[in-house]
């Protein structure tokens, strides 16, 4: 495992100000090419992210297995990709994600803004008690998305369905403009459908 607390590679004009990184066991600010996640939350409980602005080559915040009680508020993102729960069930032993709140967010010129994605593979895990509230989308692609059949390039999951159970997801007071014809896409599977959305 590549464990690094702070690393920059082939980068220009980087400013890091007022950041404290404690107990980093994986990632915590790694910028090495344009396909970069900003903040990666994994195996964590009680994380709070406040008053934050970011542009990235990939996801602003990736929320992955064994994350609970995550609070994100007063954030501005773009360009880049989403606040993403997942991808989940890429590996067989992954734990669930629950009790995530994202409030007062602005997304500008970016993709897949508030997204939940799970690989099309069997699982007993779940995603539940998720709140996306008071968000503004400015010319973004795929503003709201749930993808229970995630399989990049249709590899690794032929003929399978996601067993990750997605429930109790609230989208409240989200508005703005979509750069794609479909602004809200819920691709849930028939065997374990999304519930209480």
UniProtKB/TrEMBL annotation:
InterPro entries: Glyco_hydro_28, Pectin_lyas_fold, Pectin_lyase_fold/virulence
Database matches in Pfam families: Glyco_hydro_28
GO biological process: carbohydrate metabolic process; cell wall organization
Principal location class: secreted
SUPFAM superfamilies, alphabetized: Pectin lyase-like
Localization in the cell: Secreted, Cell wall
Molecular-function GO term, any one: polygalacturonase activity
Keyword terms: Cell wall, Cell wall biogenesis/degradation, Glycosidase, Hydrolase, Secreted
Family that this chain belongs to: Belongs to the glycosyl hydrolase 28 family.
Entry protein name: Polygalacturonase-like
Lineage, broadest ranks: Eukaryota, Viridiplantae, Streptophyta, Embryophyta, Tracheophyta
């Amino acid at each position: 495992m590549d464990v690094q607390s702070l690393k920059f590679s082939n980068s220009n004009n980087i400013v890091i100000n007022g950041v404290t990184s404690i107990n980093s066991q994986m990632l915590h600010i790694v910028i090495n090419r344009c396909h970069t996640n900003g903040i990666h939350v994994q195996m964590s409980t009680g994380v709070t992210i406040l008053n934050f602005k970011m542009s990235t080559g990939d996801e602003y915040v990736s929320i992955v297995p064994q994350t609970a009680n995550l609070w994100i508020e007063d954030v501005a993102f773009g360009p880049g990709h989403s606040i993403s729960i997942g991808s989940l069930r890429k590996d067989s032993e992954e734990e669930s994600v629950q009790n995530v709140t994202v409030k007062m967010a602005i997304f500008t010129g970016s993709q897949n803004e508030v997204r939940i994605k799970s690989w099309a593979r069997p699982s007993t895990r779940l995603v539940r008690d998720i709140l996306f509230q008071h968000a503004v989308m400015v010319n973004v692609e795929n503003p709201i998305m749930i993808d229970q059949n995630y399989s990049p390039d249709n590899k690794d999951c032929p003929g399978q369905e996601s067993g990750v159970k997605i429930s109790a997801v609230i989208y409240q007071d989200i508005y703005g403009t979509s750069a794609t014809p479909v602004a809200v896409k819920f691709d849930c599977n028939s065997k374990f459908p999304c519930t209480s959305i």
